[in-house]
Amino acid sequence: MINLADLEAAIRTALPVSHLEIEDQSSGCGESYAIVLVSEAFDGKNTLSRHRFVNDLLKAQIAQMHAFSQKTFTPKQYEDYLAKQC
Amino acid sequence: MFRASLRSPIFSLRSSAAQSLIASRVIAARYLSQEARAQIQNAVESSPVVLFMKGTPDLPECGFSRAAVQVLDLHRVPPEKMKTYNVLADSELRSGIKEFSDWPTIPQLYVNGEFVGGCDILLGMHQSGELENLLVANNVIPKVEEETEVQAASA
């Protein structure tokens, strides 16, 4: 298992983060997380390569979980995404 | 929620194996033998659409695998063009496929031997329409009018 603070710290040290949401979906056991991650590091990468990039950065953390779900945006995409939600 | 059934075989039988599984993932592809790699390559190419999942399409044993099956079902991927492998029935495959694809989670989808992604990517591609385009481009499903998806969803 891994706790939320460690996961957040790992993400923030691994890449520039402009927005981050981490949801613990494990009901407390620390094995299932869903994240929304907005970073300029995703510029010019398609979804698969973004996920591979994040999987690689968080390899040690993901290995300790049962489930890990991610949504990845560039800052520009996230603005559009929020605009659509309203 | 499926944790108990899913965990017990590995952790109760071979906790040391489970640990080496985690360790081997860090070292990645290097520990996958030529033979195992060739077997997985065969599996990946065994059908136009190949899904590595937990459980079976009729009885998925994880919500993410269930979602993947349902999305492919929505697009009416014909059964003769799709093959699924239950990684829970084969612990070697379970660890091997993660190294093979360099992808840490199950399910994993391959179309014509190309890795497409896991559940998040599959759902995202479904919503954006990319999945349908991919399946059409790979001759898995015929090109159809926009309405079909809605009909399939309600069916």
Task: Summarize the entry for a quick read.
The complex is a heterodimer of chains A (86) and B (155). With 86 residues, chain A is α+β, with helices and mostly antiparallel strands.
Describe this structure as you would to a colleague:
The complex is a heterodimer of chains A (86) and B (155). Chain A has 86 residues and is α+β, with helices and mostly antiparallel strands. Chain A has a single domain (4-85), classed as BolA-like (GMP Synthetase, Chain A, domain 3), CATH 3.30.300.90. Chain A has helices spanning 4-14, 47-57, 59-62, 75-85; strands at 19-24, 32-38, 67-73. A three-stranded mixed sheet of chain A has the order 1-2-3. The model of chain A has no long low-confidence stretch (mean pLDDT 93). Chain B is an alpha+beta fold and 155 residues long. Chain B has helices at 3-13, 15-27, 34-44, 63-74, 91-101, 119-128, 130-137, 148-154; strands at residues 49-53, 82-86, 108-111, 114-117. Chain B has a four-stranded mixed sheet with strand order 2-1-3-4, sandwiched between helices. Residues 1-15 and 25-29 of chain B have low confidence and may be disordered. Classes of the chains: A alpha+beta (86), B alpha+beta (155). The A-B interface holds A 47-48, 51-52, 55, 59-60, 62-64, 66-71 and B 3, 22, 25-26, 64, 102-105, 115-121, 124-125.
Described by its quaternary structure, the protein is heterodimer
Radius of gyration of chain A: 13 Å
Radius of gyration of chain B: 16 Å
- Through-space gap between termini of chain A: 36 Å
Total beta strand runs of chain B:
4
Number of helices of chain B: 8
Question: Mind summarizing the main beta sheet of chain A?
Answer: 3 strands, mixed
Instruction: Report helical residue fraction of chain B.
Output: 40-55%
Strand order of the largest sheet of chain A: 1-2-3
